[in-house]
C-alpha cells in the first residue's frame, strides 16, 4: 500500500505509527536531559501557516511539561521596548534539565518587525550584526541551540489561509497582522534570505524543513532534534503498584452524595 497518498503526502496511518516511535524516543531523551542537567533551546521560525504550531504540538504532546517548556511571547510592552532586544527572551532560557521551545523568537526583529515597519533599517542591521555574537555566547555557555525554519510554498500557504478563513474553528489563527503580511510574500523572502546570510553560522546553524506536507515536516523536525541532542537510554527501575491498605477504611463514595455534580449531558 505504501506510505504516501495519491498526492505524494504521507498517509495518516503511516504518520501516526512513525510519530509514536519518535515520541517514545523523545521520552527517553528527556530522561537523559534531566539526568545530565542539559540545557536545550529549540527555535521555531517560518512563514505564516508553515505549521509551527502543529509541529510543536507533535513534539511536546507525550513528554513532560516540566522538561519541555513552550514560550510564545506576546508583543513587547513599552518597558520591554526600552530594554535590550533579546533581554525578554533570555529570562525565559532553560535551567539544568530543561528544553525550551520558542514558538517564534528574537528573530521577530529580522522578520515581521522589519517587513511590517516596526523596526527600522538601522535596528534591523544592528540585530543581524549582534545576533551571531549573542548566540555564540549562548552556545559557549553550554546551551544546545537548535534553529529550525519551516518553509511552506506560496500555493500551499494560500490553501492554508483559505482553509482558516472558511473554518470557524480555525479563524482564531488569523490576525489582522497575518492578513496584512499575506500580501508581502517577496518582502518576507528577502528578509528571510538576509537573515540566513547573517545568522546561519557554524556555531548556530539554521536547519530548513520543507513543510508543504505537514506530517512529513513534523517527523523530520523531531528526528532532527533527536539527532542533535546527544542522549542515551537510561535504565530505570520498573515501577509496580503497591497493595492498597485497608487501614483507616472510609466510605468515600457516600461522602460525595450531597455534593454538586456536573450534569451528565453525554
For the structure shown, list the relevant keywords:
266 residues, alpha/beta, Rossmann fold, 10 helices, 5 strands, 12% strand, globular
In which range does the helix fraction lie?
40-55%
Tally the beta strands.
5
The first-level CATH class name: Alpha Beta
Distance between the termini: 38 Å
Q: What is the annotated CATH architecture?
A: 3-Layer(aba) Sandwich
- Rg, rounded, reads 22 Å
Low-pLDDT parts are none
The fourth-level CATH homologous superfamily is P-loop containing nucleotide triphosphate hydrolases
Report on this model:
This protein has 266 residues and is an alpha/beta fold. The protein has a single domain (12-232), classed as P-loop containing nucleotide triphosphate hydrolases (Rossmann fold, 3-Layer(aba) Sandwich). It is built from 10 helices and 5 strands, in the order αβαβααβααβαααβα. It has helices spanning 12-36, 52-60, 78-81, 87-90, 112-115, 121-140, 154-165, 176-182, 185-199, 214-228, and strands at 39-46, 68-71, 98-103, 144-151, 206-210. It has a 5-stranded parallel sheet, sandwiched between helices. Helix 1 (12-36) packs parallel to helix 10, helix 2 crosses helix 10 (214-228) and helix 6 (121-140) crosses helix 9 (185-199). The chain is globular.
Secondary structure blueprint with pairings:
Elements: H1 12-36, E1 39-46, H2 52-60, E2 68-71, H3 78-81, H4 87-90, E3 98-103, H5 112-115, H6 121-140, E4 144-151, H7 154-165, H8 176-182, H9 185-199, E5 206-210, H10 214-228
Parallel strand pairs: 1-3, 1-4, 2-3, 4-5
Helix pairs in contact: 1-10, 2-10, 6-9
Amino acid at each position: 500500500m505504501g506510505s504516501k497518498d495519491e498526492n505524494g503526502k504521507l498517509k495518516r496511518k503511516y504518520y501516526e505509527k512513525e510519530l509514536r516511535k519518535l515520541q517514545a524516543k523523545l521520552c527517553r531523551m528527556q530522561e537523559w536531559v534531566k539526568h545530565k542537567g542539559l540545557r536545550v533551546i529549540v527555535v521555531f521560525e517560518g512563514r505564516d501557516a508553515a505549521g509551527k504550531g502543529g509541529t510543536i504540538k507533535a513534539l511536546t504532546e507525550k513528554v513532560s511539561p516540566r522538561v519541555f517548556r513552550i514560550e510564545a511571547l506576546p508583543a513587547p510592552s513599552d518597558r520591554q521596548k526600552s530594554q535590550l532586544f533579546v533581554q525578554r527572551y533570555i529570562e525565559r532560557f532553560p535551567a539544568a534539565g530543561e528544553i525550551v521551545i520558542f514558538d517564534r523568537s528574537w528573530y521577530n526583529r529580522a522578520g515581521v518587525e522589519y517587513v511590517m515597519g516596526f523596526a527600522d533599517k538601522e535596528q534591523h542591521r544592528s540585530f543581524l550584526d549582534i545576533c551571531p555574537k549573542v548566540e555564540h555566547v549562548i552556545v559557549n555557555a553550554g546551551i544546545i541551540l537548535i534553529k529550525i525554519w519551516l518553509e511552506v510554498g506560496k500555493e500551499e500557504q494560500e490553501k492554508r489561509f483559505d482553509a482558516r478563513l472558511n473554518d470557524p474553528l480555525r479563524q482564531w489563527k488569523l490576525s489582522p497582522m497575518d492578513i496584512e503580511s499575506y500580501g508581502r510574500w517577496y518582502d518576507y523572502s528577502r528578509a528571510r534570505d538576509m537573515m540566513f546570510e547573517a545568522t546561519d553560522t557554524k556555531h548556530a546553524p539554521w536547519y530548513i524543513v520543507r513543510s508543504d506536507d505537514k506530517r512529513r515536516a513534523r517527523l523530520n523536525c523531531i528526528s532532527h532534534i533527536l539527532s542533535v541532542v546527544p542522549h542515551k537510554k537510561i535504565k530505570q527501575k520498573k515501577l509496580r503498584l503497591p497493595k492498597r491498605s485497608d487501614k483507616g477504611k472510609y466510605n468515600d463514595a457516600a461522602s460525595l452524595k450531597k455534593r454538586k455534580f456536573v450534569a451528565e449531558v453525554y
